[in-house]
Amino acid sequence: MEITLTHYLLLAAAIFVTGMVGFIVRRNAIVMLMCVELMLSSVNIVFAAFSRFHLDGGGHVFVLMNFAVAAAEAAIGLAILVEIFRRRRTVNVDDLKTLME
Amino acid sequence: MEGFLFWFCGSLMLLGSLMTVTQRSAVVSAVWLIFAFICAAGIFALLNASFLAVMQVLVYAGAIMVLFLFVIMMLQGPELEGERKLLKLPMWPAVAVPPMAIAVMIVGYLQNKGLTQWGPDAPESFGGPNHVAELLLGKYLLAFELISIVLLVALIGALAIGKDERKLPWK
Amino acid sequence: MELNLNIPSWSDLRFWLPEAILCITFLVALLGDLVVRGRRTWVPFAVSVAGLITAGAYAVAAMNHGLDAGQFQGHTIMGSLMIVDGMAGFFRLLFIFASLVTVLFAWTSEEIMGKRRENKGEFYALTVLLTAAMMVMAEARDLLMLFLSMEAVGLISYVMAGYMRTSLRSSEASLKYVLFGAVSSAIMLYGMSLLYGMTGAMEFDGIRNALISGTVDPFALLVVVVLILAGMSYKIAAVPFHYWCPDVYEGAPTPVSAIFSVGPKAAGFALMIRFFYTTFAAGTDAGTQLVQDINWPLLVAVMSVATMTYGNLVALRQTNVKRMLAYSSIAHVGYLLMGFVLLSSAGLASILFYLLVYTLMNLGAFFYVVAINNHLKSEELSDYVGIGFRAPWAGAMMVIFLASLTGVPPFAGFVGKFYLFTAVLDKQWFWLAIVAALNSVVSLYYYFKVVRAMFLSTPAEGTDMSPLKLHWLQYVVLAMLAIPTLALGLFFEEFKGLADMAIGMMGG
């Protein structure tokens, strides 16, 4: 069977949904951040696939920028997490009462 | 050949992401995520994005995930291992079905418009370092500069957030 | 192999001077703070003020030059990624003004400076950089720049909310901010990637041309628009993406909340106006003709009504003034979205005008809270009893801000709301106008609660009634905000004309 654009898009959609479900059901803030990374990487696949489809390099540049932004977001998110862990000894968002009201 | 590689990398990546979401231990999740990212690099290679494939391994699976693992190790303790209350497994489809339906519908509609067949073969240089460099330092130079500011903010921010006020040298 | 670099002309960068000045100011302020750390805390403050004033002067000069030439249709910068046009000029001035007064006021705030005025130099540096990033948000005309500038503003906000921890609650609020911010930008990115796929372009022009050619499936476009709108709504804190807003505002130091409640929201609106107006309305007054299959007006109208109603109803129950102002800012986003319903130039110009007014009155109200917090160490309404008589001038100015926020004539808030209402009434959206009017009445109640506590309630026996001594700079800044709030209510045509021109001079 020939692999078409749809295959790639479906794969990306499945991964995006997996990441989103993970973000909703998980309670560990680090794992929640990892689920966001999963969503971002599915977006990257969509960009790369369409880039190949249109034969336009713009999508590749977008993916590279996405890498950098993901790294920056992870760095800030983890720094805040470490800070909270120092005080509360937990990263479970259920224990962080103010977070989920 | 492309077909086989797609199913191989794609199914392994999906497996990796499912395991990331379902494993209770944060360390195991992170390792599965690295696995998924390496498979994503394979997908990029299939899409003629050779430079992205390399970067995916170096930056994503390498740098970013090491950062995650490092933080998990730093915060090691029973709190991180398990989660006392995870949503019950039968409930998961209820969360997953609506977004899944939307995603499949979009893809289906895209297909309607004949967006399924690849165009002409990509030129040899497409997606290689030279091609990306020409765009990154040409048309998208300003974006490249902006991302340097974003990274600088992340650096300063992580320092400012992480510093322990009592141990600063000037205090 | 030889690279074929096609570097765009550097001379374009002269239109980008204010942003460049701010970036340099950021670095100088940061380095200056490191060098003189802990001793001369005024260094980053002075550098930031100087940089903001210089950048502001250049921005004014550019605006004047553009207006004189009669055609500020815009200069694209380095290719097609950004454009400096009349609208960008308007927002530049707005952001610089908001940051400047915030920086000035923060200098007197104990929450920022600490009791012993120990260093908090990062606040000034980050505020300057936030200004530059917001300006880029108003200038982006490419999906990539749009995303990157939003992320830049987002990351700076996460840091500002996260590093000045006033309490445990504020740390947790900043975690919530980062987590949900990251997920909402991922959702927006998914929408952008599909939009790129459907249109094959990342510049707004290219997207518009693809939409005109009619090859885009309307249903897929609707889903994409909803996904992108989700990310943008997070930035402006519109229902149902508002949940971070009250917690972050309450947890952050009040000057930070003040700039959050104005700057990133206005930048979010600037970006939404440019994105949706140039792609969907084709930069003309034809409204949403390109996307007739999408019921765009209804989508936005429902969001607008939900946002203002939610904000106002929850604000009624608040006993903390800062939290109440946070909910009131959500309600104001609802009013602002009203101008967005029809994507007409009249509606958009009234958004610009209202943003100007909102900046003045909302910053003023937040700053009053800062000034009082210096003395009372509290933002509870019950502690505000009798406070009006202890600092009568500042109290009087607070009454002006609150009355203007309610929308009572003759204050600026009334004029702003009037323009928003006429924009929707023109197109026979009566129910929307009626709901908004009812909302304004509801808001009167909770704003008046503050005034009542300040001036009308009798303080309990033994309450300290000694006069409060406010810093002279606080009076100056409050007057800088209160006088325009009054003046804009009476002499508004000049500035409404500016807003009209800014929209008219939006380069496609």
Walkthrough of the structure:
The complex is a heterotrimer of chains A (101), B (171) and C (508). Chain A is built from three helices and no strands. The radius of gyration of chain A is 17 Å and the shape is elongated. Chain A has a domain at 27-93: Helix Hairpins (Orthogonal Bundle), CATH 1.10.287.3510. By secondary structure, chain A is an all-alpha fold. Chain A has helices at 5-25, 29-54, 58-88. Chain B is mostly helical and 171 residues long. Chain B is 71% helix and 0% strand. Chain B is built from seven helices and no strands. Chain B starts with a helix and ends in a 9-residue tail after the last helix. With 508 residues, chain C is mainly alpha-helical. Chain C has a domain at 295-508. Helix content of chain C is 73%, strand content 1%. Chain C has helices at 17-35, 42-69, 86-106, 110-113, 121-139, 143-163, 168-199, 204-213, 218-236, 244-251, 254-279, 296-316, 321-338, 345-376, 387-390, 392-406, 412-425, 430-456, 472-490, 493-504; strands at residues 75-77, 82-84. Chain C has a two-stranded antiparallel ribbon. In chain C, a hairpin with a 4-residue loop joins strand 1 (75-77) and strand 2. Chain C is globular. The two termini of chain C are 38 Å apart. The mean pLDDT of chain C is 84. Chains in contact: A-B, A-C, B-C.
Secondary structure topology:
The complex is a heterotrimer of chains A (101), B (171) and C (508).
Chain A: H1 5-25, H2 29-54, H3 58-88
Helix pairs in contact in A: 1-2, 2-3
Chain B: H1 2-22, H2 26-46, H3 50-74, H4 78-81, H5 92-112, H6 129-136, H7 141-162
Helix pairs in contact in B: 1-2, 2-3
Chain C: H1 17-35, H2 42-69, E1 75-77, E2 82-84, H3 86-106, H4 110-113, H5 121-139, H6 143-163, H7 168-199, H8 204-213, H9 218-236, H10 244-251, H11 254-279, H12 296-316, H13 321-338, H14 345-376, H15 387-390, H16 392-406, H17 412-425, H18 430-456, H19 472-490, H20 493-504
Antiparallel strand pairs in C: 1-2
Helix pairs in contact in C: 1-2, 1-5, 2-3, 2-5, 3-5, 3-11, 3-14, 3-20, 5-6, 5-11, 6-7, 6-11, 7-8, 7-9, 7-10, 9-11, 10-11, 10-13, 11-13, 11-14, 12-13, 12-18, 13-14, 13-18, 14-16, 14-17, 14-19, 14-20, 16-18, 16-19, 17-19
Key structural traits:
heterotrimer; A: 101 residues; mainly alpha; Helix Hairpins; 3 helices; 77% helix; 0% strand; B: 171 residues; disordered C terminus
